[in-house]
């Protein structure tokens, strides 16, 4: 059997990075996150590489690999440190770098899209084919919702050229995240959200939000859990 490791969100302006692991023979899927703070003030230190290694090791260990089971890891540089560690643990021959496609890539991408939708952002349908357009779409959303800059990869050097990142203060990780009170439009219960509620946009509590996510085969999965 084979466990495939891939990421989603590395090149996207919004949110951190989703790292997922998929066992193709059984369909088991798990994912975890590299927090966005690794792409903010400490980005230049490249600590996200160590965090990626920690996340990957945790995910792979959760599969309880057989003695001959291989680990196929995406070729992206975000996994360079992770692969070195995996090869020390599982052996050189069992850990291979590949171009990830198919179901593994699809599931991990869906997980990332669910995470950014949780922030109140609706991604472009054609984001994969039009990366440049997606970048500016996210940037315009941040301009309209400056309180969400805390969820942007503000450590990227190229962002200093854009006024939106100069005009608005980006809170440090020691500052508390601003939380807003709201009422769920479905069940009527009080809830809290990390964005300013607007009259023309429905707000759901965590329980009801699960019922409104776009249909996908992993909607019942939880971060770090395999499907049953």
Describe the protein in words.
- Strand 6 and strand 7 (190-193) form a beta hairpin.
- Residues 214-222 have low confidence and may be disordered.
- The protein has 2 domains: 1-177, 2-Layer Sandwich (Nucleotidyltransferase, domain 5); 179-212, no CATH class.
- It has helices at residues 47-61, 80-90, 102-117, 131-144, 164-167, 206-212; strands spanning 2-8, 17-23, 28-34, 70-74, 95-98, 180-183, 190-193.
- It has 228 residues and is an alpha/beta fold.
- A 5-stranded mixed β-sheet has the order 3-2-1-4-5, sandwiched between helices. A two-stranded antiparallel sheet has the order 6-7.
| CATH fold-level name of the largest domain | Nucleotidyltransferase, domain 5
Strand runs, count: 7
What is the CATH class designation of the largest domain? Alpha Beta
Radius of gyration: 19 Å
Q: Tally the helices: what do you get? A: 6
Q: What attributes does this structure have?
A:
17% strand; globular; Nucleotidyltransferase, domain 5; alpha/beta; 2 domains; 228 residues; 5-stranded mixed beta sheet
């Amino acid at each position: 059997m084979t466990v495939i490791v891939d990421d989603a969100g590395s090149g996207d302006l919004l949110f951190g990075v989703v790292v997922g692991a998929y066992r193709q023979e059984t369909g088991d899927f798990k994912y975890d996150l590299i927090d966005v703070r690794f792409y903010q003030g400490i980005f230049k230190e490249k600590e996200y590489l160590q965090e990626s290694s920690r996340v990957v090791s945790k995910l792979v260990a959760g599969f309880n690999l057989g003695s001959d089971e291989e680990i196929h890891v995406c070729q992206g540089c975000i996994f360079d440190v992770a692969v070195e560690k995996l090869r020390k643990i599982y052996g050189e021959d069992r850990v291979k770098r590949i171009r990830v496609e198919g179901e593994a890539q699809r599931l991990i991408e869906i997980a990332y899209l669910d995470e950014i939708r949780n922030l109140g952002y609706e991604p472009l349908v054609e984001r994969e084919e039009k990366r440049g357009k997606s970048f500016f779409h996210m940037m315009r959303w941040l301009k309209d919702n400056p309180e969400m800059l805390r969820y942007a990869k503000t450590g990227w050097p190229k962002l200093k050229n854009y006024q939106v990142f100069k005009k608005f203060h980006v809170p440090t990780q020691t500052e508390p995240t601003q939380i807003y009170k709201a009422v769920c439009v479905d069940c009527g219960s009080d809830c809290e959200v990390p964005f300013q509620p607007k009259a023309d946009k429905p707000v759901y509590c965590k329980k009801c939000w699960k019922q409104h996510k776009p249909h996908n085969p992993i909607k019942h999965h939880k971060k770090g859990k395999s499907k049953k």
